[in-house]
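Ligand-bound model needed. thiamine diphosphate.
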Amino acid sequence: MATSSKTPSKVAVMSKASLTSTKTYEGLSRAQMVQAYRIMYMSRKVDDREILLKRQQKIFFQISGAGHEAIGVAAGLALRPTDWYYPYYRDRALCLALGATAYEMLLTAVGAADDPQSGGRQMPSHWGFKNLNVVTQSSPTGTQVLQAVGCAEAGRYFAAHPKAATRVDGDYRQFKDVKFAGDELTYVSLGDGTSSEGEFWEAMNTAANRKLPVIFVVQDNEYAISVPVEVQTAGGNISKLVSGFPNFHFEEVDGTDLAASYAAFSRSAAYCREGLGPAFIHAHVIRPYSHSLSDDEKLYRPEAERQRDAARDPIMRLQMLLIREGILDEQGINKLEKQVEEELQDATDRALVAPFPTTDSVEKFVYSPDLDPTSAVFDTVPAGSVAAADGKHPAPKTMADLINSTLREEMKRDERIVIFGEDVADCSREEYLQQKSVKGKGGVFKLTAGLQGEFGSDRVFNSPLAEANIVGRATGMATRGMKPVVEIQFFDYIWPAMMQLRDELPLIRWRSNNAFSAPAVVRVAIGGYLTGGAIYHSQCGESTFTHIPGLRVVFPSNALDAAGLLRMAIRCDDPVLFLEHKRLYRETYGRAPNPGPDYMIPFGKARIAQPGTDMTVITYGAVVPRALQAAQKMEREHNVSVEVVDLRCLNPFDWDAIAGSVRKTNRVIVAHEDTLSWGYGAEIAARIADQLFDHLDAPVKRVAAKDVFVAYQPILEDVILPQANDLFEAMKALAEY
Ligand SMILES: Cc1ncc(C[n+]2csc(CCOP(=O)(O)OP(=O)(O)O)c2C)c(N)n1
Ligand SMILES: [Mg+2]
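Prediction:
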């Protein structure tokens, strides 16, 4: 027996009738108690086996679920296959209880091609089983919590809009089957240390406010690596801190006690399924095996404390209970454990000979393998370019107008689209709209004006003032098949969402080896030239995002491109960062008639904003009109013909257009509004130097902002940001070279 030294030496022989007794343990039958013991024992043994394999250098990392087995199995037995799961790394026993196998776990540990969780891409214990609704988990502590909230919102949304779940060909919906159950709930777990992350509190807030069916489980083993709980949590008890959240059902339970844990989950699940709100389970557990194999807890935990924990070992406790209650005797336990060990041995033998992924597979599933947004099939002609029967052209619209109408047209076409962010609703207090006592706001730049009125408050709504909340929830929703088109009010304030934007949203597909994906759209108002925008309302910084594999980045310079590219972004099967320049929203430059509800521009196709023969300017965004102005002056004053290439889309970008133009003109300037050093232009310049060296008659030049933030005083702003005259001077110098 695993813990035989701690069990009574003489145990009663179990009666044959014992498993048929109707006695239950907080609702668990005697047979379920045995089943639970089997899973818990398997969980511990997989940990032990992985530890051995790591010491033998057959696997490369290990983190155990030891001490957390009872709470995990309790959840697995109390919840349903139609529920959704956002576990954390100690949830091995939960995953086994849901139906994952030791073999699958060991495939992950060896990094096998057939690892169903990630195809050899993620560390072991980063759970993700598509068939079990266990959503791909990552390493950053706490990022799962807001996603779980978004997941629960998606379940509720599809229940209210069942037709939205229908498969539709021709856009991302063709590849995104939706499943939902009306009374589903979402499980999310985390450690005591992780409850210090802000995203946890943001998630609790939204779940409480929207009465979402989420069970939050804090598995409190009193340590986060070496940091004890009283350092993490004011007062040392998370239950006390969260007790003021409204609409919650709260449980604080000994998470090493299977039956008590099961009861806590049963009550919590019933509360959530009734639609009363979320539940919070604070489970006191133990961590007998140090944090991970890279940690030695003897360095910071004395022996006496460790012994105190060991006395609460959940496996030992359940074993003693089985014997005490006559559910299994010593022989029965031995037999069960032997079966588990044989099964595990077989799983290990098979996992150790499983083929590795082929090295040419590394770039697979960075993006959708199904929908290629660069495809020419998305190349359409704008309807507004054709004069009507009466010979009149429709009125030109601003970029702001066309973004608004594109959102409206797409929302009509696709019921999976929801829009949320700060101030995007017309008016959160709906009654004011109904009474017609207010007109409604619809965004600080009015880009979403009228959409709540037209599509309802469950499709267009305000978020709390919390950017991680916006992107994290959008990620959860998109994982379930919705199409959140969310707004970050100012690029300058995107950073609280950075963990979600770098480590989550664009990575979900790759890290799960295409089992999951989250093709959300994040619209962001960006840029300066505002006269008074100053440091915190003028920033660019697009290269930070083009540096993220898996994220499409779009940056239009005019109304027509904004409409065509936004529609492509919404129909796309990849996550998209859609950058909208504030200065261009209402400019006279670049207005266009509405190009119609199907106008699309494929990604990665530049636009020749002005053809030329003597030099090329590669640029995008608000520098495009400035480059055109400078180019016209060059033509007028120096008879130099400048080709202006507007990239429009930064990832993917149109290398063919760049190369074609440089081969023709042999002189090139790369220009952008963002600061010069380490910027987007550096990459383009490096590629030109590398691949077009023989075609150059002069060095590659760059024009960009000075390496400072944008100042408030307009004369300072002017000198900091690249102006038409800076471009003109650079063009002159390049022409003279
Ligand atoms: C955002 C982030 N910061 C730091 C880490 C490194 N790290 C991994 S686990 C961990 C401790 C987590 O403690 P807790 O939440 O209590 O969970 P436990 O491991 O105790 O179950 C830390 C600091 C990380 N993975 N992610
Ligand atoms: Mg902990």
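Residues 191-193, 221, 223-224 surround magnesium ion (ligand 2) (CB under 6 Å).
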